[in-house]
Amino acid sequence: MQIAPQTVVSIHYTLTNDEGNVMDSSVGSDPLAYLHGAHNIIPGLENALLGKQVGDTLKVTVEPEQGYGEVREEMIQDVDRANFEGVDEIEVGMQFMAQTPWGQQPVTVIAVAGDSVTLDGNHPLAGQTLTFDVEVMEVRAATEEEKEAGSVAG
């Protein structure tokens, strides 16, 4: 069976950045399962997998616009330290959930200077060209429940 919309696909992948550093991998654990065509994975990877079948391997380079997007400067803001009531120490790299004009989303502390904390609401991989080494492990028809939910059951 070929990968097509409304199929459940299981893949093993290794994600590297431009410098060749491994950013994420499913190798050594369970494969990633997703519903093809339901926007469960980034568009550049999903498009490259269309028509593939079990046993196929591929290397896919995904530019930011087909991945996690470009860095959006409006998603980076300085906020007052007083907004972190109950948090004794704030350090670069910490993540918090914040209410934004786009709804609740994770933000990462990228700088701390006195009473000012700089938060970045961009995805950590925004602005990066990503390379995926992928092996297709399984392809099957989605169940009605998976189609309705827009994601893989379980």
Automatic annotation (TrEMBL):
GO molecular function ontology, one term from the record: peptidyl-prolyl cis-trans isomerase activity
Subcellular location: Cytoplasm
GO biological process, one term: protein refolding
Signal peptide stretch: none
Domain of life, source organism: Bacteria
Main localization of the protein described in the UniProt heading: cytoplasm
Entry protein name: Peptidyl-prolyl cis-trans isomerase
UniProt-listed Pfam families: FKBP_C (PF00254)
Record family assignment: Belongs to the FKBP-type PPIase family.
Organism of derivation: Nitrincola tapanii
Cellular compartments per GO CC: cytoplasm
Record field: transmembrane: none
Reactions performed catalytically: [protein]-peptidylproline (omega=180) = [protein]-peptidylproline (omega=0)
